[in-house]
Structures are given as C-alpha cells and as structure tokens.
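User: Hi! I'm working on a homework problem where we have to compare a predicted structure to a textbook description. Could you give me the structure for the chain below?
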Amino acid sequence: MNEIELSAGVIEYEDSGGAGPVLVLIGGLAMDWRLWQGVIDELGPEFRCVAPNMPLGSHRIPMAPDADLSLVGLGRIIAELIERLDLDDVTLVFNDWGGGQTMVSHGLLERVGRLALVSCEAYDNYPPGMAGNAALLSAKLPGGIALMRQTILRRPTRRLPMVYGQMSKKGVPDALLRSWLEPLARKEIQRDLRKYVGDVRRGKREIEAATAALGGFERPVLIVWDSEGKMMPTEHGRRLAEDFPNARLVEVEDSYTLIPIDRPELLAAELGGFAAA
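Assistant: Happy to help. Predicted structure tokens:
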C-alpha cells in the first residue's frame, strides 16, 4: 500500500492510478479500503480510485497520540489527504460513516466537485442502529473493544442485529472480516478507535447541526440508499436528496448498508456515471 504522513499521523491508502476522474472512497468503523475492492475492480482503468484506511479500527499504523480523531477531526484528515495528494475535482464517496455532512458544514470540501452518500449515518441516526450503539458501549467498558472483537470473530454471533446482521445482506466474507479485525488486537489501535467512539456525543451534535448547511452545497450530490436494510432508515436517503439543492436519489434493492459488498456492480455503474458527468 501507499503511505502518506499527515498532521494526525501516517495514513495508508490504495491508489489505482490513472488519469481519469478521481474518486476518493471512505468507509466506516472496523473496515479498511477493501470494502471498495469490488467497486474499484468494476470501475477499472477509466477512473482513479483512492481509498484510505481511515483510523477507525482497521488501520495498521496508529495515529499520533495527540491526533484529533473526532468526527470533524477525521473530516480534516480526509481534506488534508486530498490536498497533499494534489487531487482536484474529486468525487468524494462515503458509505456507512457520516462524515460527509460535517465536511460540508465545516467547509472542508474545497477540492471536491461531487459528493456521494451511500447508505450512511445521517440526522439523528448517529451512532447508527444496534451495531453503532454496541460499539459505543464497548468503547466505554474496560476491555470492551477486545470483547467486541472476539464476539464478531465468532460466526454464530456475527449475524446478530447488534453485530453485522444489519450491515450486509450478502455477508462480509470471513477472511476479509477477520483481516479487518486483526489490527484491533493491538492496544494502540484500540486507543484510536476509543478516541473516536468516545466522542460520539459531540459528534451527534455536529451531524445534526450540519443539516442546516446542506442547502448551501450546490455542487452535484448522488444519494445511493438501500431499500431493505434497517440500519440506515430509508427515509433518511430521501430526506438527504431533498435537503441538498442539486441531488439525485437511487434506491437499491437486494442490499443492506454495505452496498459496496452487496451490489458492487450497480454501485460502480452509478458512481462511474456520476464522476464522469
């Protein structure tokens, strides 16, 4: 993988290269860039895809001890990454994690030409569903993150609603999930995740307050939302499409939140057409 040293520490990222339209792809808690592997494969050499390992539990290099890993702080990391890589007219894509809205409200999208929100946290759904609240509880309890990791590693409990049952209809491949959770065995990676999850009250205020700023973002927005899952309410996708002045909504069947895993071909087609427009 590629590495870049930012103010908060070293970030690893996958870069498909190429001179085509640039997409920067961001996932959620305990997921690395491979959430997007199927989408990147479908987009092929006509697009340049940059997918960082965000410091949300599946990153392999711990952040600086004083790094700001709040919701807004992570948005600043993305903005700095885009600037340091000298990317322009970026199509910035989020799945599961809701940092896109706060990047709008904090003016962190200077180099972003298009924004795509794919079944992600929004409005009062932060942290999202039973799985999000379970993660919050694990960060508060001594040894909770290690216990959460062991719970997810066990196949019988993995499909429960409070674990991964509401995230992927197809199911995250076992080998991929295990590799996502491997870094969380380390104390310093647990520390980074705990800094983010432990700041959820302020993050909740930030994401709710961001709603007022969405109407001022006039660049193109694509909302891709699953119509079957329960983790990200269907009405939130429709509401986002109304709150942004230049938005288009695509509702996806046969998928839960992790559309990049459940329907990569469809998502790649939508993102490719959007980025190339």
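For your comparison, note the following. The chain has a mean pLDDT of 91. The chain has twelve helices and eight strands. Good luck with the assignment!
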